[in-house]
Predict the 3D structure of the following.
Amino acid sequence: MNTPRTTTPDATPPDTSTPHTSTPHTDASGPDTPGAGSALRLEPVTPANVDAALALRVHPHQEHNVAPVAHSLAEAYAWGDTAWPRLVFDGDELVGFVMAFLDIPWNEEKDPADRRSGLWRLNIAAEGQGKGYGRFAVEAVRDELLRRGARRLYVTWEPGEDGPGAFYRRLGFRTTGELSGDQTVGVLDIG
């Protein structure tokens, strides 16, 4: 996604007292499903895990589709409470990074009342691709947005054969017909 267009969020501050966790999965029912006994959870970025976060790398053929974690963390710092960065763990293993954008004005010149929340960044470690970590991260963002009262989850992606459009469509996103810069805009009704 392009940089959010505001620095003044109206969103409720994130609840960092308890991490987002999944119900342990008991079977591997196909691609994009974590394996047996996995304990997926989101954790805030902290001094104890920031170096591991910075070392996270997507598959080399995806590097042109998503900014590195270091870039995302710099944006999260700059945008403050508008950004919701989290690390994705499977047990003790860091497997991904996800960042949501919260209640930003989408296109103030066209419609000042159009405020949106959604998925800003999703980086799944190269060795963790196809194991359900991306699906878990998107569902965790959905749950957080629902908790905050959102009714839709937006996402943008680089178009093209090797872009993540097919992944998002499998999760139920539909394109809006809009572009954010040169990226396709998708939306998922969540509430």
Remarks:
- The helical segments are 50-55, 69-79, 133-147, 165-170.
- The two ends are 22 Å apart (CA to CA).
- Confidence is low (pLDDT under 50) at residues 1-18, 22-31.
